Amino acid sequence: SSELTQDPAVSVALGQTVTITCQGDSLTKYHANWYQQRPGQAPLLVFYGKNDRHSGIPDRFSGSKSGNTASLTISGAQAEDEADYYCSSRDTSGYYRVFGSGTKVTVL
Amino acid sequence: QVQLQESGQGLLRPSQTLSLTCTVSGDSLRGSSYYWSWIRQRPGKGLEWIGYVYYNAMTSYNPSLKSRVSISVGTSDNQFSLKLTSVTAADTAVYFCSRDADYYSSGTFDSWGQGILVTVSS
């Protein structure tokens, strides 16, 4: 079981905005990190911390957190954004790392 | 720019020991304050953190795997390894090595290897 909960799947029309969420008690103390994973590829860090986009990531990706829920928003989704997205952080004890169960984003 | 590359056995029999090595270029394991990590992904499933070795050789493991797993820094300063004993079919997965930069103390995997498929089958 995962201490971080994500919706299994969301869809977004091309050019529209989609927000995916990650919920867990540890997020009241730690930040969420967001990864994009396209089929057959390794995950790629997309967003982390309060407001930090990883190197080379387009500015249509943004993140936020409120209470125990972190969010990743894709503004103006492109076809290449279709992928699985995972969040990660520390667990509630702080000793271990945990991943969310992942959200499949489909761009229509 | 750091790069990571996994290597090791791709096919194991049940009860054998999985042994993988991650070769790091562009960074020094002992000269940096990163957590050098292993993560796996079972077929069609999500990501599972296995554990890490810190630059000072301190380790931490996923409690669900702790009794079977060992992660260590190699004799050369650019390799670290994973050993998982008594494997079963449930250990069939793509295994990734990764650098955890722990930004904001929140465990941030900022660089990844391409992954290696390990199959356990009799």
Structural class of chain A: mainly beta
Instruction: Provide the gyration radius of chain B in Å.
Output: 14 Å
- Identify low-pLDDT runs of chain B: none
The greatest inter-chain interface is formed by: A-B, 29 and 25 residues
Number of helices of chain B: 0
Catalogue the unreliable spans of chain A: none
DSSP strand content of chain B: over 45%
Radius of gyration based on Cα positions of chain A: 13 Å
Question: Quick check: average pLDDT of chain B?
Answer: 95
The multimeric state of the shown protein is: heterodimer
Q: How is the main sheet of chain A built?
A: 7 strands, mixed
Following the backbone from N to C, one meets helices and strands of chain A in this order, namely EEEEEEEEEEE
Q: What global shape of chain A is seen?
A: globular
Number of helices of chain A: 0
In short:
The complex is a heterodimer of chains A (108) and B (122). Chain A is mostly beta strands and 108 residues long.
Protein model, in words:
The complex is a heterodimer of chains A (108) and B (122). With 108 residues, chain A is an all-beta fold. Helices cover 0% and strands 48% of the residues of chain A. Chain A is built from no helices and eleven strands. Chain A has strands spanning 5-6, 9-12, 18-23, 33-37, 44-48, 52-53, 61-66, 69-74, 83-90, 97-99, 103-107. In chain A, strands 2, 4, 5, 6, 9, 10 and 11 form a seven-stranded mixed beta sheet that branches. Chain A is globular and about 40 Å long. Helices cover 0% and strands 51% of the residues of chain B. Chain B has strands spanning 3-8, 11-12, 18-25, 35-41, 47-54, 59-61, 69-73, 79-84, 93-100, 109-112, 116-120. Chain B is an all-beta fold. The mean pLDDT of chain B is 95. The radius of gyration of chain B is 14 Å and the shape is globular. In chain B, a hairpin with a 5-residue loop joins strand 4 (35-41) and strand 5 (47-54). In chain B, the strands form two sheets. In chain B, strands 2, 4, 5, 6, 9, 10 and 11 form a seven-stranded mixed beta sheet that branches. A four-stranded antiparallel beta sheet of chain B has the order 1-3-8-7, with no helix packed on it. Chain B starts with a strand and ends with a strand. The A-B interface holds A 2, 30-33, 35, 37, 41-45, 48-50, 52, 54, 86, 88-90, 95-102 and B 37, 39, 46-49, 52, 60, 62-63, 96, 100, 103-115.
